[in-house]
Structure formats: structure tokens, C-alpha cells
Specification:
Length: 188
């Protein structure tokens, strides 16, 4: 019994210490988020794609069913490729190509479902994640900058910056940009 309690205490300490050591985004990322990336949320092609997705009126049940199908599908299926090949997806790839540190970009509707993307995301529904919840912010919008984390899909240390997609002053969705920290440092 004593060993189990000691093990539990040590494990809790290690986990809490690990969380305390999370690396925050460098100042360059914060500046980029508030100067350049926030403007992407008002780009007409992105706004149009989000408006069209919102107009489909998908239920949360439908979104979660697609999320399950998405996560269970290996590789890139046609329904995923369509989000990359759409006008919005092609536009995102041009944005991605504008700097070597843009590792991934994806756009979400007003429920956090993917609208378009540069690369396959690990799941379809982002609505249960901080990147969407904080940037959509219940329709009020905000810039959300995550911690530096290792991303399995890109095999790089990324900071995810999420900004609202706005039609005029109305927040209608969100965009997430994965910034490769090593490539950002190399570009300085």
C-alpha cells in the first residue's frame, strides 16, 4: 500500500512538473499572429468558404459521424482531398508557400468542422479543442496561441496560432496556422 501511494505521489509530481515546463510561443510568433495572421481571417476566399459551410446547417451529430469516419480512414480519402483541392484549400497552399515556417493551415466553420486545409488533419472536428474554442470564442473571436508542441503529422515542433474568421464584424469560423519553430528561427 505504501509503495502504491509513493508511486502515485511521484507520478503526479512528474506530470505536474512536465506541464509546468511547457514552452511558450516566442515573441516572433505572437507578433506574427497579431500583425499578419489575424488578417487572414478576413480574406474573401476564406470568408466565402466558411459562409458556404455554415449554410449547410450540419448537425453536431453529422459532424461527429464524419469525425469518426475521418479518424478511422487511413491515408487521404476523396472527401479529405476535396477540402485540400477546393478554392479555399488552394488559397491556403499559396499562403503556406509564402513562408517556410507555415507547416499547416486549416479553416473551420462555426462549429469547428473542417472547411478547407493544406494537409490532412488528425481529425475532422476541432470544436472540442482549445484552438477552436478560444479563437471562435462563442462568436466573439480572439487570437489563441498555443504552446510549442511536437506535432506527429508534421514531425516538427509547432505552435498553433488560431484566429477568428470574420464577415465584417461577425465571427463565423476560425483558422489555425501551425508554425514550425525551427524554420521560423532559421528564417531570421
Amino acid at each position: 500500500m505504501k509503495r502504491w501511494i509513493v508511486w502515485l505521489i511521484v507520478s503526479a509530481w512528474i506530470l505536474s512538473a512536465g506541464m509546468a515546463w511547457a514552452e511558450k510561443a516566442p515573441p516572433e510568433v505572437i507578433d506574427l499572429a497579431h500583425s499578419t495572421l489575424v488578417k487572414w481571417g478576413t480574406e474573401p476566399v476564406i470568408v466565402r468558404a466558411v459562409k458556404e459551410a455554415n449554410a449547410q446547417g450540419k448537425s453536431l451529430e453529422q459532424i461527429k459521424a464524419m469525425d469518426k469516419r475521418w479518424r478511422e480512414t487511413p491515408g487521404i480519402a476523396d472527401f479529405m482531398q476535396a477540402l485540400m483541392d477546393s478554392e479555399c484549400g488552394r488559397y491556403l497552399r499559396r499562403l503556406q508557400a509564402s513562408a517556410p515556417y507555415y507547416a499547416e493551415i486549416f479553416v473551420m466553420d462555426n462549429q469547428g468542422a473542417n472547411v478547407c486545409m493544406t494537409d490532412k488533419t488528425s481529425d475532422y472536428w476541432q470544436g472540442d479543442e482549445a484552438k477552436f474554442q478560444k479563437s471562435f470564442n462563442g462568436g466573439k473571436g480572439a487570437v489563441h496561441i498555443g504552446d510549442v508542441e511536437f506535432d506527429d503529422s508534421t514531425q516538427a515542433y509547432l505552435v498553433q496560432v488560431s484566429v477568428p474568421v470574420k464577415e465584417g464584424e461577425k465571427v463565423i469560423g476560425a483558422i489555425t496556422i501551425g508554425i514550425d519553430i525551427d524554420r521560423l528561427e532559421e528564417s531570421r
